Amino acid sequence: MTALIETGETDEHKELRASVAALGSRYGREYFAEVVREGKHTDALWAEAAQLGYLGVNLPAEYGGGGCGIQELSIVLEELGAAGCPLLMLVVSPAICGTVIARFGTTEQQRAWLPGLADGTRKMAFGITEPDAGSNSHRITTTARRDAATGDWLLTGRKVFISGVDIADATLIVGRTEDARTGRLKPCLFIVPREARGFSRNPIDMEISAPEKQFELVLDEVRLPADALVGDEDAGLLQLFAGLNPERIMTAAFALGMARHAIGRATDYARTRQVWQEPIGTHQAIAHPLAQAHIEVECARLMTQKAALLYDAGDDTGAGEAANMAKYAAAEACVRAVDQSVHTLGGNGLTREYGLAALITASRVARIAPVSREMILNYVSHQTLGLPKSY
Ligand SMILES: Cc1cc2nc3c(=O)[nH]c(=O)nc-3n(C[C@H](O)[C@H](O)[C@H](O)COP(=O)(O)OP(=O)(O)OC[C@H]3O[C@@H](n4cnc5c(N)ncnc54)[C@H](O)[C@@H]3O)c2cc1C
């Protein structure tokens, strides 16, 4: 109970934090940097985290998951990030895809996917962004039509910036189907296996030091069996939002972990680096911005916890607002924390050895994805404050 009052978390959450942090510290930034340098993936860490039950902590126990929620999964991601080795695929595989399948998938889809997503032996990517839609996901044009003779789906369209498609067994693609009655396009989710015919990917040359790559995807009449459609054709938007709230909460956790990692490196440095009579951390010009960054991270974590609690309690609407605010607050805290941390190290902030400069680009990801800072401000000004819609 004391822990709950102090941190908004239970004793079990604190224990989970401590044990994930211990795992993360055994790998650390050096491991992550080496994996990136060698063009490999974080397979060893992924496998060990899976074995310890961390990757599927949010998935139903009957399918081998931990039976907990997004709050616990966000703790896992934040602590690994704070140790310098964030696992981006946690945002998409168990958080978005696992959640959507657990909540809306058919029993067959749950049996086929959840045990593998829970024990980490299978991964699923998530594709919604399109080149001509971007932030305006109402404009996506990837369309599925039924082959009347076989009942199969034929999916055609393009996606961009989709993470981890090369290491995922399948991608959960947001497409649209035509409403037979009104002719309007309705959002729908399809599981597209990596090697499906007509499904091709081109890596995008990103300036981000991370093991996960982003891809442009082309879907050219990809033939999928009837049961590739997740859940109900008419509940598309509802199902989609069930996955997008965890995505925002997890992106907040990703940003919080990175911010804590950067602040940790900077404070260690500021405590010992001495160019006058005292360490540079004595100067308030160095100390105060780091203190400010720490406060912003703590505040953003509280909002992230609120969003996760609401989501796990089944309040999708309340969680929607809180998840947007949490993602905004955590991303902004992260960008500022990284900026100040790099500055604290002077010239060393830009060396590869200290590993902070790479975070400048990485921290910007949380500001733009999965929903940009401006789109969250649009949402809050319109939905929360009741101001006229601007777009
Ligand atoms: C590293 C990385 C990984 C990603 N992984 C995935 C993934 O796995 N799956 C996936 O589906 N997508 C992924 N994305 C895509 C990401 O979600 C999009 O980049 C994001 O939604 C923004 O879309 P856009 O890039 O097309 O920007 P645009 O929509 O073109 O926006 C450009 C700028 O204009 C601003 N803007 C746009 N509209 C408005 C408005 N109405 N009012 C004010 N400002 C506006 C935006 O805020 C932004 O600053 C990833 C992106 C990155 C960078």
Q: H/E series, N to C?
A: HHHHHHEEEEEEEHHHHH
Could you say how many structural domains there are in total?
A: 3
Assembly status: single chain
Structural class per helix/strand content?
alpha/beta
CATH superfamily of the largest domain: Butyryl-CoA Dehydrogenase, subunit A, domain 3
Q: Helix fraction?
A: 40-55%
Mean pLDDT: 94
Describe, in plain words, how this protein is organized in 3D.
With 391 residues, this protein is of the alpha/beta class. Helix content is 52%, strand content 14%. It has eleven helices and seven strands. Strands 1, 2, 3, 4, 5, 6 and 7 form a seven-stranded mixed β-sheet that branches. Helix 9 runs antiparallel to helix 11 (373-384). It is globular and about 80 Å long. The mean pLDDT is 94. The structure holds flavin-adenine dinucleotide (FAD). Flavin-adenine dinucleotide is lined by residues 92, 126-129, 134-135, 161-163, 208, 214, 365, 368-372, 374-375, 378, 391.
Which helices and strands appear, and what pairs or packs with what?
Blueprint: H1 2-7, H2 11-37, H3 43-51, H4 70-82, H5 89-104, H6 107-119, E1 124-127, E2 143-146, E3 153-163, E4 170-178, E5 185-193, E6 199-203, E7 214-224, H7 236-272, H8 284-312, H9 316-344, H10 358-368, H11 373-384
Parallel strand pairs: 1-4, 2-4
Antiparallel strand pairs: 2-3, 3-7, 4-5, 6-7
Bound molecules: flavin-adenine dinucleotide.
Residues 92, 126-129, 134-135, 161-163, 208, 214, 365, 368-372, 374-375, 378, 391 line the site of flavin-adenine dinucleotide.
